[in-house]
Model the fold of this input.
Amino acid sequence: MAIVEMKVPVIGESITEVTLSKWLKGNGDFVSLDDPICEFESDKATLEFPAEAAGKLIHVAAEGDDIAIGALVAKIDTSAAPTGTAPAPAEAKPAAAAPVAAPAESKPATYAEGHPSPAAAKILKESGVEPSAVAGTGKDGRITKEDAQKAAATPPAPLKGGEAAAPAIAQAPTAPAPAAAAPAPTGARTEERKKMSRMRRTIAKRLVSAKNNTAMLTTFNEVDLTEIMALREKHQDAFVKKYGIKLGFMSLFAKACAKVLMEMPDVNAMIDGEDIIYHNYVDISIAISTPTGLVVPPVHNVESLNFAQIELKIKELADKARKGELTLEEMSGGTFTITNGGVFGSMLSTPILNEPQSAILGMHNIVQRPVAVNGQVEIRPMMYLALSYDHRVIDGSSSVTFLVKVKKLLEEPVTLLLDL
Done:
């Protein structure tokens, strides 16, 4: 027997452990070379693990296990033949083929088939239903709690024939007794315990770290989006026709932030030990909500991209994030973050820093409300902006100035387009 050991490969410099989130091949299945056998969930992404040889797969770790880099995950028996290959003895002894062929047409019985789970057994016993009368829908034919509840709630079918009907009638008065003795509960009080996913645990640690290890403050302002909305309405069709994507708010906000960040390097900086690192480029991390948690992949060199390039890159990252296809390289980096809670209806919030970055801009929902314009009250589309920042790097005056500059660019988008 030749055994190939499958061990967790090195995924990234900072990753020392992964979670086996899902087996893609069952224990005992025959796998081919490079077949994906399982999925690993790291701190930043979900990765498929391919088979390093062809043969019979033997599980060593279980789903949900946290496994160190280099630890054993599975074994592959390379001497095993693929499922469905005819064994050699069958040709030498044709007489023995007949009894062997019969079971091949039916699914082999397992211990679980026709056996109730502990909860199901209790329900069947209380309701007087025999397990043999219940069809199990659980794994390998096991009778589940739901199967037992359905069997207990279903009255027995009436028997045909005059002589057989008499005993059924005689037993009828006793049938309602168990139901009367066990009234239905007035409200469900169920609980479910699930292990946190590795991504959720990582998010929790990073948020607590940002709260505990930074001098975080938040400053607010509001922006009138009248001109931005007029610009989008006027040129949207031409923009879509030329670039194949809509001009959204995110590219406008990202470009405005990038312009001001290049003018104010403190807001684009980060602390490393006792040093401050200043960046002469702007990589803006975009917060994207996924079924497994929030991810913040960066768009690199926003200061050098046009609006269409930013929109296309954001769409690409968002599609990959929701499919779980982001690579570690696509998740790395970032000098500033933008999060848009407005898409979920948020009016105002205090976004938390994305370490090691020193600032994050929070966008919120757009609300039509009355504002004073040149001494007159007008209804304008208004949005609250929030800038959370690390006071160790950014002074209060710098944070306020940053928001005021961003506000001016968005309220006068011509200056942003002309780079004034």
